[in-house]
Amino acid sequence: MALIYCVEDDDGIRELISCALKSGGYEVKAFPKAKPFYEEIRNKEPSLVLLDIMLPDEDGYSILSKLKKDSHTQDVPVIMLTAKSSELDKVSGLEMGADDYITKPFGVMELLSRIKAVLRRAGKQNAEADVIEEQGVSLDASRRICSYNGQEVVLTYKEFELLMYLMRHKSIAVSRDKLMEMVWGYEFAGETRTVDMHIKTLRQKLESAGCTDLIKTVRGIGYKI
């Protein structure tokens, strides 16, 4: 089981990430600032580090620089988490050795996909495709391909994320609010009608391929497989 360290000072975001990673099958240790993170990483090297840039005691760029200069941690993959979205901020982190960069707000499913991709590139996770199948529908999470009985169904990024989350939680009625949180991001301020519109187009594409009744509407709650 891959061990992931998350360095994030916002209590709510740190808790959300921790819960999501645990549900995704990862071991997680979370830290609100740099000092306890340094103490722990000296004792045990993680498979990957999620590193926020804006921290109370030291900024993420400084932490990243130290990790990459230390022979014991220089090969540990790092994904930067930040509210900053400028191209310069992203380039700075990547040039300093970060493996990926996610701008807040982000969907939990996107975060899990990015983590899998980075771990796979780093050789810290089995490179075998993560394939989910249900009622003839197959989702290849690593290649992001959806097919029905061998016929490819072209989906948008959000449609794929929606279907993947529902299939991973089959038989469970998932609320629109939960889907908004997991797919669009914990701070997304849009209306849940966004979910309904994406479900509508997702159903249309599946039905065009011959797949009907995969996604059920649960009145007053949301949707389920």
From TrEMBL:
Keywords: DNA-binding, Phosphoprotein, Transcription, Transcription regulation, Two-component regulatory system. InterPro entries: CheY-like_superfamily, OmpR/PhoB-type_DNA-bd, Sig_transdc_resp-reg_C-effctor, Sig_transdc_resp-reg_receiver, WalR-like, WH-like_DNA-bd_sf. The modification 4-aspartylphosphate is found at D52. One of its GO terms (biological process) is regulation of DNA-templated transcription. Residues 129-225 form the OmpR/PhoB-type domain. Residues 3-119 form the Response regulatory domain. GO terms for molecular function: phosphorelay response regulator activity; transcription cis-regulatory region binding. Residues 129-225 bind DNA. Pfam families: Response_reg (PF00072), Trans_reg_C (PF00486). One of its GO terms (cellular component) is protein-DNA complex. It comes from the Bacteria. May play the central regulatory role in sporulation. It may be an element of the effector pathway responsible for the activation of sporulation genes in response to nutritional stress. Spo0A may act in concert with spo0H (a sigma factor) to control the expression of some genes that are critical to the sporulation process. This is Stage 0 sporulation protein A homolog. It comes from Ruminococcus bicirculans. The gene is phoB.
